[in-house]
Amino acid sequence: MITHILGYPSIGNNRDLKITVESFLNNHIEIQRLDREIMLVRNIRKIKKGICETQDSKLDICTIGSFPYYDKVLTLLMYLGIFAKRHIAKRFSFVKYFHIAKGYGDSDPLKMSKWFGTNYHFMVPEWDNLSKFYINKLLDEDLYTRKYIYGRSKFTIVGPVTLLMISRYRNINIFLNVFKRYINILKKISGVVNYIQIDEPILSADLNGFQKRMFERFYRTIGMISHLRIVMAIYFTTVSCQIYNLVKDIRLYGIHIDARTSKKYVGMLSNNFAIISLGVIDGESVWIGNYKVIHTKIRRIASEMRKSIGIWLSSSCSLEHIPISVSSEKIVIKWIAFAYEKICELNEIKHICLFGKKDGIYLKNKIEIINMKNFNILKDDTDDRCARSLKKRNTIYKKWYDNNYHTTTIGSFPQTHQIRKLRLLRKMGRICENTYSNSIEKIVEKCVRFQESIGLDLITNGEMERNDMVEYFCEHISGILVTRNGWVHSYGHRCVKPSIIYSNLSRRKNITIAWAKHLKSITDKPIKFIITGPITILKWSFYRKDIGKKYICNQIANILREEVEDLKKEKIKDIQIDEPALKECRPLRGDRKIRSFFIWAVRMFNYVCDGLHNICVHTHICYSTLENIDVEYISKLHADVLTIEGGNYMDVVRLLKNNKIDMGIGIGLYNSHSLNCPSVRVMLSKLMYIRRRIGNVIWLNPDCGLKTRRWKDIIMPLRNMVKASRLARYTLR
Questions:
Q1: Which residue in 312, 485, 529, 659 is deepest, having the highest Cβ count within 10 Å?
Q2: Catalytic site residue 673?
């Protein structure tokens, strides 16, 4: 019995990846490009070494892989030597790597999308050009990590079928070309490490006939290469009939499955593989595992398999979606386990399987599980109110329907060093709450004056008082633990800090009213105030799965309903209820499951804004590849304006054309995460394309919040957006 994991957080114990990459990008030290790259590589090698040492101390196999210098998918594209036409390069360099990720000059970066129902954003591959294949130094650099490992090693890489299915352009000839490149890379990797892990999370979705044929074609080909010890990892799903039919005839060294939910077909898989890796630890949540349940499941599965098969124990998916360790937290609930603690759990489960339940490890876990189940069991009293049929709001507020092409922002503006310093001083107790609030109010006023000066139609306060759109609300709700250093990789070099929902939820006091009053007092222009929606707060927090997400979401919806009612009393005429996580929270497969989710998710949203008559309700959904079934239910939201990411605006227009939505449409006119500043002409041409194809009232805005940007990066794009709006109104006239 061997222990391993599918992946480990790569951000470093103190967000070292963020600090390293930002130093490289901002060029704080004026040195030549080559020296900057050497410094970047040295600092990242320290992060890799720490990851290897952590795994070596507890696990039998150490997992390394395509390192996310900015994104793991982009790193894989560099391995393969594949670039879009606008990114063609004769040779690899880290400067070029980050140009592709963030844009440069007139060259747009690759688009971003959500990674299979998680909050991680990956770069969407583009296949409009295939450069000459070469194994560049980036692959050699990641393979160099093997020197830090004393035991057996495993290299993880995103599988070719997943890579191809998440790409923007799909062509059979391109697919076959990429397959050949993959095989060359696998041969290179196999000469350095003991095993290769190929991740195929695309199997968690429903595949069409073409995708199935591509899957069978590739894996039958590499199955004939005998010296490759390849373990295919399937996660985010149970072993279904589709998965069994796909993998039963291929010949690989091993396969990884999520053993927590898989019941059928597991025993039959043992006939085709030398080893089976069982995902027995939940890699997506921060709660401790139930050793009794896990031990019983392992014994049951082992009894169904042939005796000669090797059994590996692992996490259900990569641990990159949870924080690193609870050791840096001051207040810790005993039932919490982050990535390092999950590794320790695997070690303990192996010990129980080999030596029995009689030692103190098993008993201690049993007591903690009983305590968790009995602690403050969530008793929901809002379910009946949320479940009742909600009538469509009386949206008579016609102010915004007199004209078209209104301009606004998603809500947030750059969080400067000054704001972060104020927040730190307040946290350390060096300044009082009044001093902090007065300082933030002055910064808000400057932000409002800037918005007025460039001519935005709808003003926000820039969310200067908020450290994070979810964490800010969680700090004001009892029953939620806000961690000190529980960072999780979100996109690029950015991290988020999910909160932990552990008990009954209630609002301690008004969350946003004081700031809404302040915004109203400093401007005569129309204002919009932002509330984070119930689905997003639920999804971007770690909630207790032994209770159920519907009950927890009901309580969140009730709290937000109270907050919205208070905003209504203050006569705020525009309220934005953000739901960027609506798509990522839905099930990955199964039409019935998807529809069941949307029914209660839409009900939660509508419950929050029920009764907001004569008020314009906005909502925001970003970086999700929407499908017809998504738009069908999104159209049932009681909102007046739907703001969506418009990077791939042709797909957005096609969806809106096929599915009529009785809302205003806020189009993300430019990529807020890119360093590229689109001209007025580019924005206007995109706007005219959209105008000719849909009849909705159109709003103009960036495609996401501006919190992570610098002020100098947002001024020109916003000015150009306002100019494009005025030109469009003139053309319409």
A1: 529
A2: yes
